[in-house]
Amino acid sequence: MAVIFEKTKALTDVKLHYCPGCAHGIVHRLLAECLEKSGEDKNAICAVPVGCAVFANKYFNFDAIQCAHGRAPATASGIKRVHPDKTVITYQGDGDLASIGTAEIVHAAARGEKITTIFINNGIYGMTGGQMAPTTLPGMKATTAKAGRDPKVNGNPLRVSEMLATLTGPAYIERVSISTPAQVTQAKKAIQKALEIQKKGLGFTFVEVVASCPTNWGLTPVKAMEFVREKMIPYYPLGVFKDITAEEGK
Amino acid sequence: MAKVLMKGNEAVGKAAIEAGCRYFFGYPITPQSEVPEYLSSELPKVGGTFIQAESEVAAINMVYGAAAAGARVLTSSSSPGIALKQEGIGYISNAGLPAVIINMMRGGPGLGTIQPGQADYNMVVKGGANGDYHDVVLAPASVQEAVDMVMEAFDIADMYGTPVIVLADGLIGQMMEPVEFNYVRREGIPEKTWALTGKGDGEKHMIENLVIEPDDCEAWNHRNFDRYARIEANEQAWEEYKMDDAEYAFVSYGTASRVVRTAIGYLRNAGFKVGMIRPKTLWPFPQKAFDKWDAQIKKYLDVEMSMGQMVPDVAFACNDRTKVLFHGRTGGNVPTVDEIVEFGKEVMGGGK
Prior knowledge:
The complex is a heterodimer of chains A (about 250) and B (about 350). Chain A has about 250 residues and is α/β, with parallel strands linked by helices. Chain A has 11 helices and 7 strands. In chain A, helix 1 packs across helix 8 and helix 4 (about 95-100) packs across helix 5 (about 100-110). The relative contact order of chain A is 0.15. Chain B is built from 12 helices and 15 strands. In chain B, the strands form 3 sheets. In chain B, strands 3-2-4-5-7-6-13 form a 7-stranded mixed sheet, with helices on both faces.
């Protein structure tokens, strides 16, 4: 009988601890499928964050290290400089990357470290239970902004892809989402492209995934996906913010 | 190898290269900036990598990555910068990874002063990060000893899987002395079979830091403490100076011990039977030295460039806090020979 679908071997059989409707499972699978397709799962080392994805090392069937909060880009830089021929990835959430680790991601990008960062932006702290993230939208409720984020009090959300795109070091920056099947397909293409550009040694690559957190948003998984489309994506528009391979092609 | 005249900060950089270190991640801070300056030009000549990180925090986490990847890796800084590195040092310790960290101490607290000090004893020897852990701490008293200890630090780190901190001070970093480099790798250093190298056709490797179940985390701690017990048994190091007939013993390390050594000459000439136990390892503290000499010692004279941070360790080592007296200078000042002679006479009786 012909096999028409098989789970990627770049994921282990360890049961995911994520909530129903969480985006991490989808993005883990996309990353794993991309690595397996190119055979790079045998060559990959992933720096995992502090946050909901802290156990990603157990789910990925390739080498991985649990990093200090926000420091994955620095740790990955150390790994990549020792093993320039390996595919080195950081997998980070918004608290990890866009709050406590802002310096590390900006400078890894500025140095043009030949690594790939997968950035899950769901606008909330998940692991600690729904506190305000640097990417929480104005008006969005959080346990540390109970009436909703008020920019006058809590400041404004960061658009990380746009910020990093101002730098010379990055080779490829794209923002994608996973709230529709078409978006999932595009997200996979973006991850594949980022990994290919890393393999060519062209520079820093970054894929931001606008994602949902039904548990901490207080929405059903379906409603949470609607929130992504109706509220998150208008603030965090999808698209390619930098691609030096496209510029070369012009 | 013939002796050459070198500044301490450059000599420790060369020592790292001699010991096979090819990766340095650091950030400028007085009085150790010559370490990154030297390695920025010397590492590329031997195929190595130097990164000036955006912060000490980033630098120590680059060290974490390079250590996990199986490399011999170095960072260096001075007191406020070492304070910033503590989180990362705790992670490296917890993961059981080898790394070498040089601290050219200056006076503190806070921004303090850029002049030499020894007031990081508590932070470095007792551990400035969260949790139950130890790092090996080596305390050189000369440029040559700093060189030897940096080379040995890489071996100890690889032998046990632990960060090793070389705790010197700005005076040793800034001073020029003749040095030679004779690295001989220790026997019995294990292969880094656990390193992150990509799994290839084998099993994946993981470097873990979160051990969320209490029973697992406790067992993890006990495994670390088995390592510390082996280090305490094997690695205590100290120098004994004029101890054979001593009735009184100075206890001093690093730069302060150099001044004490001179003062002992004057005190001996004045008839005092005094020597010195100079810890070369601060963790593990050289308990064995005190066990060996304590019966004949009436008082210990602890001299440090701090407000007496080592005193509790000396009191514990001799098991009698009434036997320990302290004289120190702090805030970037180095004690003079005269004041140590005076301190000695006060303790031992001025009648001689």
